[in-house]
Amino acid sequence: AFFANKLEHESKHCNGKGLQRQGSSYFDRVYTANQNCGHAYPTFLAVLWCAGLLCSQASAAFAGLMYLFVRQKYFVGYLGEKTQSTPGYLFGKRIILFLFLMSVAGILNYYLVFFFGSDFEIHIKTITSAISPLLLIP
């Protein structure tokens, strides 16, 4: 909602009419940042839900909140110079990778239970709970 509101405000400020692609370079940066965040959102939701359902809900929720914070940092950094958005982008990639690995671990555990009767859910939850605070390290 913040991204869309910022885009609408900048569009009205530059053109006086509805959303139009022409405008200042600041409008172009707002528009591009909004598009980038919109394109990354479906991937984030998919890995977040898989990690939460198949692995650990607490670790997935923590990583999800961190990702939303990082996307905000990316968006605000993109409005300045483009190099200011790089840390937010890289941090976001690391969180998506963590959620993806949680999803893979949950899927592997499901198949281990299904085929061999071995359940490693407690071990996986312990490991992800221990690793998730490491996401705070830049």
From TrEMBL:
Q: Which GO terms describe its biological process?
A: leukotriene biosynthetic process
**What GO annotations for molecular function exist for this entry?**
enzyme activator activity; glutathione peroxidase activity; glutathione transferase activity; leukotriene-C4 synthase activity
For this protein, the record's SUPFAM superfamilies field holds:
MAPEG domain-like (SSF161084)
Query: Subcellular location, in the record's words?
Result: Endoplasmic reticulum membrane; Nucleus membrane
User: Which Pfam family is an annotated match for this chain, by its short name?
Assistant: MAPEG
Which membrane topology term applies here? Multi-pass membrane protein
UniProt keyword annotations, A-Z? Endoplasmic reticulum, Leukotriene biosynthesis, Membrane, Nucleus, Transmembrane, Transmembrane helix
Instruction: Provide the primary localization.
Output: endoplasmic reticulum
On subunit structure and binding partners, the annotation says: Homotrimer. Interacts with LTC4S and ALOX5.
Explain the purpose of this protein.
Answer: Required for leukotriene biosynthesis by ALOX5 (5-lipoxygenase). Anchors ALOX5 to the membrane. Binds arachidonic acid, and could play an essential role in the transfer of arachidonic acid to ALOX5. Binds to MK-886, a compound that blocks the biosynthesis of leukotrienes.
Q: What is this protein called?
A: Arachidonate 5-lipoxygenase-activating protein
Source organism per UniProt:
Mionectes macconnelli (McConnell's flycatcher)
